[in-house]
Design goal:
Order of helices and strands: HHHHHHHHHHHHHHHHH
Distance between the termini: 13 Å
Number of helices: 17
Number of strands: 0
Shape: globular
Strand content: under 5%
Structural class: mainly alpha
Length: 471
């Protein structure tokens, strides 16, 4: 169910990007890519941070309280208004004057209408994933139909963003009506609940903002430094690489509430889990995630131009080397997602966000430096370097090192298998079908030799699936 939720959340938007890349001119697509990347910096305030804290608070209650949900809705509305206003007012200077204020206002409505995330938090805290899937699917369907209709009508980017906001609003109204008997939609000011939510949300906001800054700084800077065409090329390659986050986020839909409900604490200042169940969960989650993405990541690394040309058209094949670099981010995203949710579960978010903010700022500096010399390829290099260094830092800091090392240790063997596949593919010639064949074969062989998936794992997965079917 979690995988299907992420398919609706991640895959269909990628399909929409593929459609837009072919249906609108490169300059407009570059502006669209800029706005999506730019607004992602503000979405962390109202989606990543507050929604994640709502899940944690509700999961740790003996009986999830509607009062907490109502307070969350009120706080989410206030934060959405603030985020939309700031995003609209700041877009001019940050885009170098290339994005009109009214277009930014239309795009910012997506922030204001994303209130359905509070209900998703409620369902996730109860491990009721089918309603979460219904919400994600409804929004994705409305969004896809609306975008195609307005693009075919030649209505322009403003209409595209208005359709996105309308899809959010319809889904929120629909779920609020569907559960109105037990959960009436209320926007409540509750000093105690808001204080509780904000104490958890503020560190997560800074952490999420830093993460997004690390991922999106290059695209934001590119528009003013190199223009919309290069912004579109990097945006297209980034979208493909970001699609690999589907699996980590899908797993965390259920694993994160489980971690939060266990409420694991460090023992004796050693920074290690007090319960071995957490260690097992972290190890398996990381290893299985990298196992699932090992082959497609390898293919993107050795044949990025083929992948980009196939997905976006021949005009975007030149962004292939950028995809080859950004495919490394898929591996870092898998470990980083597990680390992030793990540290939030054990209340180590303060160290997490401080570390992430430092390396996000480093990424901005590196992006500016490398973009002036290598354009969008330089932005990709800066993103990978800052992300990798951030995880290394977490593995060295005393409050987080034990948890982070659990993830990185579990990632070692799958990463080696990917390296073997890439080496074999490059020896056969970058960008050729022979390279794809050799890389896939070498990667699969290395996965078997390195015992990334064992007989015990297969038995565990089978038993889990049988249990899920019985349930």
């Amino acid at each position: 169910m979690g995988l299907l939720v992420q398919a609706a959340d991640k895959i269909l938007p990628v399909v929409i990007v593929l459609y837009l890349a072919r249906a609108i001119d490169p300059e407009s697509f570059g502006v669209y890519s800029f706005l999506v990347a730019y607004l992602a910096l503000f979405q962390v305030a109202v989606e990543y941070s507050l929604d994640a804290v709502l899940v944690r608070v509700l999961s740790q209650q003996s009986e999830p309280s509607p009062a907490t949900l109502h307070a969350g809705l009120g706080l989410k509305l206030l934060m959405s208004l603030a985020a939309a206003a700031v995003a609209t007012l700041c877009v001019g200077p940050l885009s170098g004057g290339r994005v009109p204020l009214d277009l930014a206002a239309c795009a910012s409505l997506g922030l204001l209408t994303g209130l359905g995330g509070a209900y998703r938090s409620w369902f996730r805290s109860n491990l009721e994933i089918p309603p979460v899937l219904a919400l994600a699917s409804a929004r994705a369907l409305l969004l896809a139909v609306g975008v195609v209709v307005v693009v075919q009508a030649g209505a322009g980017l403003r209409a595209v963003f208005l359709v996105m906001a309308a899809a959010n609003l319809v889904v929120f109204a629909g779920v609020a009506l569907a559960v109105s008997r037990e959960l009436k939609p209320r926007f409540v000011f509750d000093r105690e609940q808001w204080s509780l939510l904000l104490r958890g949300a503020v560190p997560l906001f800074f952490n999420g903002f830093a993460i997004m800054l690390g991922l999106k700084a290059g695209q934001v800077l590119l528009l003013s430094m190199r223009g919309p065409v290069e912004t579109g090329l990097l945006g297209a390659a980034s979208r493909v690489a970001e699609a690999f986050s589907l699996l980590p986020e899908a797993l965390m839909i259920t694993v994160y509430p489980l971690m939060a409900s266990l409420h694991i604490k460090s023992d004796g200042g050693a920074g290690r889990p007090a319960d071995t169940r957490l260690e097992e969960t972290v190890e398996k989650s990381t290893r299985y995630l990298l196992l699932a993405i090992a082959v497609p990541v390898t293919v993107c690394m050795v044949a990025g131009d083929l992948v980009m040309g196939l997905l976006f058209g021949a005009g975007y094949a030149e962004a292939g080397p950028a995809l080859s670099l950004l495919a490394v981010m898929a591996l870092l995203s898998a470990t980083g997602t597990v680390v992030t949710y793990l540290l939030v579960s054990v209340h180590a978010e303060k160290t997490l966000y401080r570390n992430t903010m430092v390396f996000a700022l480093l990424n901005v500096v590196l992006s500016y430096f490398f973009i002036t010399r290598a354009g969008y390829m330089g932005a990709a290099v800066a993103m990978i370097a800052s992300s990798a260094l951030s995880q290394v830092s977490l593995a060295l800091l005393p409050p987080t090192r034990a948890y982070t090392r659990l993830c990185l240790a579990a990632a070692l063997r799958p990463a080696l298998a990917v390296a073997c596949g890439v080496a074999a593919g490059l020896l056969a010639g970058y960008g050729s079908l022979a390279a794809v064949a050799w890389s896939v074969g070498a990667c699969l062989l290395a996965l078997l030799v390195l015992r990334v998936l064992t007989a015990e794992d297969i038995a565990f997965i089978r038993s889990s699936l049988r249990w899920g079917q019985k349930s």
